[in-house]
Amino acid sequence: MPLDDNVVEAIYREHGSALRRFVLSATRDPQLAEDVVQETVLRVWQHAPEVNGSFRSYLYRTARNIMIDNYRRSQRRPHEALESRLTEPAEVMGRVDELLNRVLMEEALLRLSKEHRDVLVALHYRRFTVNEAAVQLSIPSGTVKSRAFYALRALRTILDEMGVER
Are 160 and 111 in contact (CB under 8 A)? Predict the structure, then answer.
């Protein structure tokens, strides 16, 4: 299959900077990050017709998998393991997973209605009680409870559509 420069350029233009920051948070090596970003874009381009759900989440999961593959490959070659630019795999992958979860949750929250998002942010991120959220949002506490219930249902649906495992 010939490489479609326009598609690859579009993926880089739309997602390259954010993807590079994501990879750099794990590797702290700009050259390795660029290699992972390039491989990610190429792999995503090759499999784009198969992408179900969120393109961005697919992109980040692909980058994560490439970083894991690179680390495993370096461990199979002891002489290269000394040169490995990924440090402490559990720590790095923990940071990558945390960042990936944050990105996916932000994307999912943005797909909710403003009313549902506001209630979830107040209750789960700002840790308000129902009554505090009601005062903050200027709505009755019963409405806070109702919106929270339906917002969580909608969020689960969105996360399922994005292919995020819960």
Answer: no
Does the pLDDT value for residue 82 go beyond 50?
no
46-54 contact pairs (CB < 8 A, 24+): 46/1, 48/7, 52/163, 53/161, 53/162, 53/163, 54/104, 54/107, 54/161, 54/162, 54/163
Q: Which residues does 161 contact at the CB level (< 8 Å), separation at least 6? A: 53, 54
Q: Which residue has the tokens 């920051």?
A: 21
The domain spans of the chain are 1-110, 112-166
DSSP assignment letter at 49:
G
pTM above threshold 0.85: no
Q: Which of 100, 65, 62, 68 is nearest to 84 (CA)?
A: 68
The count of C-alpha atoms lying within 13 angstroms of the C-alpha of 41, restricted to the half-sphere facing its C-beta, is: 24
The angle formed by the CA atoms of residues 165, 38 and 30, to the nearest 5 degrees, is: 95
Model pLDDT for residues 23-69, shown as the tens digit of each residue: 888 777 888 888 998 888 888 887 766 666 677 878 888 888 888 88
Task: Report the CATH number of the 112-166 domain.
Answer: 1.10.10.10
Q: Where are the alpha helices (DSSP H) in the chain?
A: 5-27, 30-47, 55-76, 78-81, 89-110, 114-120, 130-137, 141-162
